[in-house]
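Hey, weird one. I pasted the Mutator family transposase sequence into the form twice and got a warning about non-standard characters only the second time. First submission, copied straight from the form history:
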Amino acid sequence: MAQYNITLDDTVLKGLFSGDKGMSDLLEQVLNQVLQAQATEQVQAQPYERADERQGYRNGTRPHPLTTRVGTLTLHVPRLRNGNFSTEMFARYQRSEQALLLALVEMVIQGVSTRKITAITEELCGAEFSKSTVSELCKRLDPIVNAWNGRNLKEKKYPFVLVDAIVLKIREDGRVRARSVMIATGVNEEGYREILGMMIGDSESTASWSEFFSWLKSRDLRGVDIVVSDSHSGLVKALHSQFQGSTWQRCQTHFMRNFLEATPKSLHDELYGKVRAILDAPDVETARMLMNKVVEDYGDKATKAIAVLEDGFDDITAVLSLPDRYRKRLRTTNGMERLNEEIRRRDRVIRIYPNRDSVTRLIGALLMEMDEKWQTGHKYLDMAEYFVWRDEQKKLSEMQPKLQQIS
């Protein structure tokens, strides 16, 4: 990754404390210096420098407006005589920014925004904007987001899949309705995380989740071994129907909340520690032994809580069958929760979406950028030990009928 030396004017730094424009001035100055540094890299020479390595000559700059949430920046993009200057600064950065802006603008056009939203859009877009302007921006952004969200997944297998939903408010038929945005992430066979896709459902019903899972399978999602989620009844029924042969791991964080809700307050601390020991057991046999002890000691004191524990035991300990290194990241949906937090940061600005397309555009653009970040980052898991373990389990499974015949 390239490193750049950035210098800042004292007046810009002082401006950070004297008005709203200070941040945009700072960002504008930094980005313009980055553009000049990129030009130097491509030319392989400083301005007016005589060098044998020089690959071209500068030919001034051209202004380029960049709309951000801190205002419209004027960037001075270098021009080279051979016309070959290139930068990725604009396209990748502006996907989610454009989607956020479009959602705000649509709210104003449809007359459902607050004065605050109107002020934001006028600051970012200028004094006037029209439906044709929005339509033109959508034509550029929507195909990119939709193509990514509907891409074929056949190139890789995804042994581990995590699913969750987030509820957003969308204006439909003149009314504000709560809709569920279902999201799936996966860990592929190379150990990298991917965002597999998102879909808007009317609710978290079995029908909505079944449609979502069928859609993922139609895009050639395959090789699924472990699915991690909370215990929403509609989700679980759809999982068992659509991913037969896969193991369901119930999110331990959600389970613990449900367990403590059913536990008498006087026993919260005591039982929390004992159930935590069950979840941290080295294997399923040890976990079951610890559970039986808890059932014996607290069956009469916390009847409802013990019923929750016994009913959910197999689902919350499914991950214990895996090698130890995979358990921590597959025992909960905490990774999905962090993704939801990023969505909520944008959602707090919008609050009520003008239509479903604006949800797909904004959330899809955000997820697309997050997916690119994951793909170019570090591996989420080293999958080598998993495949060795899986092959051993397969051999044991094939030998089982023969051993039964012998016995």
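That's the output from the first submission. The warning seems to come from a hidden character in my clipboard, not from the data itself. The radius of gyration is 27 Å.
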